[in-house]
Amino acid sequence: MTKCITTVKEMQTLTSQFKREGQSIGFVPTMGALHDGHLTMMRQSRSENDISIISVFVNPLQFGPNEDYEAYPRQIEQDTQAASSAGVDYVFAPSVDEMYPNTLGITLKVGRMAEVLEGAQRPGHFEGVVTVVNKLFNIVQPDRAYFGKKDAQQLAIVEKLVQDFNHPIEIRGIDIVREDDGLAKSSRNVYLTEQERQEAVHLSKSLTLAKEMYDKGERHSANIINAVTDYLHNHTSGEVQEVAVYSYPELEEQDVIHGQIFISLAVKFSKARLIDNIII
Ligand code: PAF
């Protein structure tokens, strides 16, 4: 039976007790509106740990002034049921006042890794993410934490957070879960109109095109970026906000590709900004 916890004190008391008992804790941080991508992470957490915990918290710190904080889907009962079906033991769902009772006197600053890609488009976003993730790690005290590769920049930054601040936590990156037609699952897909939903399939198709170019030996990022950008312009009505090739996980721009890379794109539709990527 999945239990919902709303206070930091109760969550921390429970997790401290599990630690004393030598039970391993798996943790999936989320903002709710759970979909199959989250469920995959929860099942993995369930299978690798004694206790499985998720958080459902729409973190105001990571939303910019013109972003969808107010409109972000909130459906805690549905989410608790979904978590229960994936074998989660506890859903930690605090209020904003519970997480941030006072104005923060100390904040975390992400350096160069937040100045590119999503971070460049959304100033302050990754500071908000690492601040809440740092707090959640201290509250939940997990042994393993699960993050989707769809937010590959977030995953790289969280790995750096864990390394730089010595959190004794193993970060597990989970492959992107896609709809049958290839659209990456996202809580924001619900914002798409019918027409946009049909066009959105071309995000993953454009990444397949990029992979094909790479497989055929293309190593100049500009050629891949131009081909993907043209493809997206021709197949979607959305605004192509980003097509980029970066090293992964270092997140350094690559003119000529070598080593592991990450091709990332962002397309803004009328109400949804969709991102997708492929790590090669
Ligand atoms: O990926 C998300 O849903 C959020 O950025 C996270 C990690 C739960 C922090 O609020």
UniProtKB/TrEMBL annotation:
One of its GO terms (molecular function) is ATP binding. Keywords: ATP-binding, Cytoplasm, Ligase, Nucleotide-binding, Pantothenate biosynthesis. Its EC number is 6.3.2.1. The active site is at residue 38. It comes from the Bacteria. CDD domains: PanC. It is found in: Cytoplasm. (R)-pantoate binds at residues 62, 154. The reaction proceeds by a bi uni uni bi ping pong mechanism. Belongs to the pantothenate synthetase family. This is Pantothenate synthetase. It comes from Staphylococcus argensis.
